[in-house]
Amino acid sequence: MADEAAGPAEGGERFDAVVVGAGISGLYALHRLRELGLSVRVIEAGDDVGGTWYWNRYPGARCDIESMIYSYSWSHELEQDWTWSERYAAQPEILRYLEHVADRFDLRRDIRFGTRVTAAAFDEDEQRWAITTDGGDALAASFLVMATGCLSVPRLPDLPGIERFAGAAYHTGSWPHEPVDFAGKRVAVIGTGSSSVQVVPAVAETAAEVVVFQRTPAFSVPAWNGPLDAEAVRERKEHYSEYRRLARETGGGNPWHTRKESVHDETPEQQQREFEARYALGGFHLHAAYYDLFTDAEANDLLSDFVRDKIRRRVNDPELAELLCPYDYPLATKRMCVDTGYYEAFNRDNVRLVSVRDTPIEEITEAGLRVGGEELRFDVIVFATGFDAMTGALARIDIRGRGGELIRDKWAAGPRNYLGLTLSGFPNLFTITGPGSPSVLSNMMVSIEQHVDFVADCIAHMRDKGFTTVEPTPEAEDGWAEHVRALGEASLYPRAKSARSWYMGANVPGKPQVLLPYVGGVGRYRRECERVVERGYEGFAFGVRQARREAPAPVATQGL
Ligand code: N01
């Protein structure tokens, strides 16, 4: 459907599609849409590709999904040629991989780097998105694909005096490109989520002192990372398509199924054996021990007890171990962490923990932090304080649909969309791994590829049928919101609201507290999307542009 008018135009350049973000989603979206013959421009705030892996360069940064499955599946040659060095890849290796993909598929020529999209408005007459950037560019596109990431808006804590600190301060989510030397430095790390559990052991290697400020303890389990064995890589590559297929059918997008047994089907000895075996496998294998771990509070208690016991065994000082044990939310309802040596770092002489529940951080001073009336002096503060997750990046851009409605107004009481991908009133807009899709509860690679494929297939369908606009009906959106809500309510996830889970929007003051991701799993979600397509894009309304400056005629409404 290449727009005949694509190319330079009065008021800005014109493209068939504009993609916002050149991370894992944006790169694949560019490749897929180009394959359809569309003219595409990607706008990226960073100076190169990589998204999350471009920004999160802190020491110890590493993916907690296994590298051979946290990689693109859409090019057989790519997956055969690329060889990962470790079971869980570190940030520099993932970034090298994404740079390799950009080079190999000649993607950079369609990416404008160092540019942020500030606004996008749907022009109902022209049936195009008018997009503006912080560089003053104006672009027009038939389709707008938001590949802006779920964890791309770093959050600093609301602590008084934050601007006063005279030492160096870094947020893990926007880490400098130059190496940061911690040797001999006194370092404060605020936060104890996934970023902190990685940065603490790494910084402790050289720093004189690391003080970790903990508000809510995390559940963290060992990754058991290590070099990948050549024979295992060969075997995986030989059967790659089977692993990929399996990953797509499961709950979390990893190549293993959750067992069909309930915790209650087995004796305490069997449960213990099962948990031990999965703990020994590392990371998220533990989640798949029983099907009811995240819907049955008693089942979750057993797993939580098991992991607390492991934490106690990893920390030499029993009092400190107890302080590191979480008690106020069921395991995984606030993101479980996967670590290499996090708890063991507290056995070092140069690492200590301050519970800010007992002694709150009162203010940031020029020299450090005032805590419990005492000033603690630091050379460096590391803010491992998280993100305005899932909706933050979309709400920050002035995205206006029909009638000038802003996404952030539409979502004032919590996000509403259809399939986590499209919004009623916002034609031809797609959100990759948006709220209401499995996204952060899954291997993002699997979810991203499925979303980009859905978008590309939908655009191809429109081209075949001669449609020029697509958007979900309000009824379809309501139905999806109810489905997402009902699944969430039947799970234990809402119980982490009081523990400030970012899954619930509860880490950002004033943000509506609703469960953001779809908890039904990637396999079930994929089947929902396939069913929608099989029924002729059920729930979507397509339009055809009739003549210039005339309203589109609605031609097909596949009501739910
Ligand atoms: O952020 P977080 P993150 N005073 O929101 C604390 C992915 N990820 O960057 O819980 C004191 O989890 C806050 O305390 P509390 C992954 O999906 C993946 O670590 O609000 N503390 C919390 O402890 C992950 O879940 C990987 O009480 C304050 C911490 O800061 C997501 O990104 C690696 C505070 C924030 O934890 C986000 O992880 C890294 C204050 N005023 C990230 N304000 C891997 O793949 C906030 N906190 C391995």
Layout of SSEs?
Elements (H helix, E strand, L loop, with lengths): L6 E3 L2 E9 L3 H12 L4 E4 L8 H4 L20 H6 L9 H14 L6 E2 L4 E7 L4 E6 L4 E9 L21 E4 L14 E5 L3 H11 L4 E6 L5 E3 L7 H9 L1 H10 L18 H14 L15 H18 L3 H7 L12 E3 L2 H4 L5 E5 L5 E4 L3 E4 L2 E4 L2 E4 L8 H5 L1 E3 L6 H4 L18 E3 L12 H22 L3 E4 L1 H16 L32 H13 L5 E5 L8 E5 L3
Parallel strand pairs: 2-3, 2-7, 3-4, 5-18, 7-19, 8-17, 9-10, 9-17, 10-13, 11-12
Antiparallel strand pairs: 1-2, 5-6, 6-7, 14-15, 15-16, 20-21, 21-22
This protein binds 3-acetylpyridine adenine dinucleotide.
3-acetylpyridine adenine dinucleotide binds next to α5.
How does this model look, in words?
With 560 residues, this protein is an alpha/beta fold. The chain is 30% helix and 18% strand. It is built from 16 helices and 22 strands. The protein has helices spanning 24-35, 52-55, 76-81, 91-104, 194-204, 230-238, 240-249, 268-281, 297-314, 318-324, 342-345, 392-396, 407-410, 444-465, 474-489, 522-534, and strands spanning 7-9, 12-20, 40-43, 111-112, 117-123, 128-133, 138-146, 168-171, 186-190, 209-214, 220-222, 337-339, 351-355, 361-364, 368-371, 374-377, 380-383, 398-400, 429-431, 469-472, 540-544, 553-557. Strands 1, 2, 3, 4, 5, 6, 7, 18 and 19 form a nine-stranded mixed sheet that branches. Strands 8-17-9-10-13 form a five-stranded parallel sheet, covered by helices on one side. The radius of gyration is 24 Å and the shape is globular. The chain starts with 6 loop residues before the first strand and ends with a strand. The structure holds 3-acetylpyridine adenine dinucleotide.
